[in-house]
Structure formats: C-alpha cells, structure tokens
Design goal:
By secondary structure, this protein is an alpha/beta fold. The chain folds into two domains: about 270 residues, Rossmann fold (3-Layer(aba) Sandwich), CATH 3.40.50.1460; about 70 residues, Immunoglobulin-like, CATH 2.60.40. About 20% of the residues lie in helices and about 30% in strands. The strands form six sheets. Strands 2-1-3-7-8-12 form a six-stranded mixed β-sheet, with helices on both faces. Helix 4 packs across helix 5. The radius of gyration is 21 Å and the shape is globular. The relative contact order is 0.12.
Length: about 350
C-alpha cells in the first residue's frame, strides 16, 4: 500500500514564494494518478493567505495516523514525503523545512533528518521516498524541530529501502523559474509527440519539481525499459538536472541518494516514448558553429544568431561545439547521456 505526506508553503509573512503550493498540488496529482496512492492515503498540506495552516502539529498527527494504518498492513508499504517551500541547510544530511511562521519565529522548522528517522523507525514501511524542493543555505541559528513522541526508537523489524532527493546541493540556493514552452512551435508535447510536460507551463514553479514530475512521467527511463527505478531517477537527476536549470539561466545542481538498497525501488512504470529530438542547443552569439560527434566527425555546421535554437537527435556519447570565427574562444564539450532524455546546452 502506498501512502503520502505532501507539503507546499508559499505564504511566508516576510519571504513569500510563488510556486511551492502549485508544485505540491502537481506532485500530489501525480501521486494519485500515476504513483499508486489512493486519495484517502494522501495528506496534502498547502498554505493560503487566510489561515495559519501548515504550522507543524497537524503534520505530526497525519504522519502518526498513516504510521498506525501502515503498521497493521502486512503487504509492502511505501511512504512518499514531499516538501516545497523555504529550507535551511543545518548539516550536510539535515535540511530544516521552514513552516508557515518562519522567519518571524526563527526556528519554526522541522528537521528533515529527524523526520526521516521517524519514518524508518516506525515499523510501518518497506520503502521511503523523500523529495525536498527547497534551499539548503547554511544557518547556524536554525536547528529544526524533531517530531513529537518517541520518534527515535525503532518499532518492529522493518528496515526500509530509502530514496532521498534534494533540489540543490548543501549550502546552495534552489530556484523558482518562469516556465515557458521548451519547443519551437509552442505546441504542448511537441518534443516527445505526447502530452504536455510539466516543464511546458507558463507559470512560476520550482525548477526541480517540474523536472522531477517529467522524470517520473518517463524522462528518467533512459534505457527505454518502461520502468523508473530509484537508480534510474538518481542517475537522471545527476546527469541532466543541471542542464535543465541552465536552460533558465540558473546554477542549481540537484542530488539524489539511496540507503539500505534503495536503488532497487521500482517507483513506477511508464509508456516507452522516444522524443523527436534529445538535445537542444541555444546559441548566445552571432557566428559560424560546428557540432562535432564522439569521433570528432562534423555533424552540423552553420551560421547562427543570438537566441537561435538547434534541435538534434544524438546518440549517447561526448560532443563538442566550436566557434569557427572566433578561434580564441574555447570549444564547449558536453555529454549526451541517453537517446531518450532531452538535454539542454547553451553556447
């Protein structure tokens, strides 16, 4: 049985966000429609301007209710825990998740590490999947509150496989971006020939969550097997998120880690759909450019102008872009990791 706690907070009094609530609702929708979580097993907490919801106690109550229900279930149990909002990097392993009254109440945060420990100690789950879309800048004043009760005492003999995904590196920022259609004719899904991607929206959203949902909808199936495992998602994030962020002119590098054999988690199955192109290059100069292949063969040469986009279908391997007019500029080397995954480069 699959269970989920999903949290999204925009309405901080002093530092409001724009896309965290939309991100949380979008991830909750994916969980219900494609992630195998029944509506009664999904607890969604989002902020609004009218009340102080998402203050802490209601989250603990919801988790405890899920723990009790899952503990009595003998089948394989999975917990999704998702948070989108402000975050603080307490340590490399511990991210404080800022709740509704932060920063007016400086430590109105929960400890990501302590809550993860609660999930793994609960004796309720065989798989725990954690996703944090928030900053991880270090702040010595923030500690993050622990769950209520005896969260640090193991119950039963379940030792869950764990996947932990962070939207950014420790000590770094995580960004919201304005998402524009990524295809040249502005028709949703043109890149894949399928339905519109989460990243083909015109709304302000978290760069990581939109990438995550597109990944779970099939982008992370780099081998074309129709399965998204934790290992496949981890590799896809490592290989492709940074270039996704660069598409919006942001420097952000997400991370994913597994514990207790978490690589083996089969997250979901997806249709096998190959994109019409798997590499999009945006030029930032007026010049003549050559794209070289893995064996330094000339794959494409042409005159370009600033803002022009080149879309190509590339095999897996190393590639190089070279400016033929200004030979003082170094070439750009990049890697195409999968024929099925779209990568984005700027030159």
């Amino acid at each position: 049985m699959n269970y989920a706690i999903v949290i999204g907070i925009d309405h901080y009094e002093k530092k409001p966000l724009s896309g965290a609530v939309a991100d949380a609702k979008a991830f909750a929708d994916w969980l219900e429609t494609k992630g195998g979580v029944q509506k009664e097993n999904l607890k969604l907490f989002v902020s609004n301007s009218e009340d102080m919801l998402v203050s802490g106690p209601e989250i603990d109550i919801a988790i405890d209710t899920i723990n009790r229900a899952a503990r009595n279930n003998s089948e394989t149990n999975r917990l999704y825990f998702y948070f989108s909002g402000h975050g603080i990097g307490v340590t490399f392993d511990n991210t404080a998740l800022c709740l509704r009254l932060w920063p007016a109440l400086i430590n109105h945060c929960i400890s990501g590490l302590d809550y993860r420990t609660w999930f793994t100690n609960a004796g309720a789950f065989d798989e725990v999947l954690i996703f944090f879309d928030c900053c991880r800048e270090h702040d010595t004043l923030i500690k993050g509150n622990s769950p209520a009760g005896s969260w640090n005492l193991p119950i039963g003999n379940r030792n869950p496989k764990v996947l932990i995904c962070n939207s950014t590196a420790y000590g770094k920022l995580s960004y919201e971006v304005i998402l524009d259609p990524v295809n040249e004719n502005n028709s949703p899904g043109a890149a894949t020939g399928g339905p519109a991607k989460e990243s083909e929206s015109d709304k302000k959203r978290g760069a990581f969550t939109t990438f995550l949902i597109d990944s779970l909808n099939g982008d992370a199936d780099s081998d074309g097997t129709g399965q998204i495992t934790a290992l496949a998602l981890k590799d896809h994030i490592r290989n492709n998120f940074k270039s996704h962020a660069e598409k919006f002119k942001k420097t952000q590098d997400a991370s994913a880690d597994t514990l207790n054999g978490g690589d083996q988690i089969l997250i979901c199955t997806v249709p096998v759909v190959l994109p019409q192109f798997n590499c999009e290059i945006t030029f930032e100069r007026n010049s003549n450019i050559t794209l070289y292949g893995p064996n330094l063969e000339d794959l494409w040469t042409g005159d370009v102008v600033d803002g022009q986009v080149l879309q190509r279908n590339l095999d897996k391997g190393f590639y190089q872009l070279k400016d033929n007019r200004d030979t003082t500029l170094p070439p750009k080397n990049f890697t195409n990791y999968s024929p099925k995954t779209i990568s984005y480069e700027r030159f």
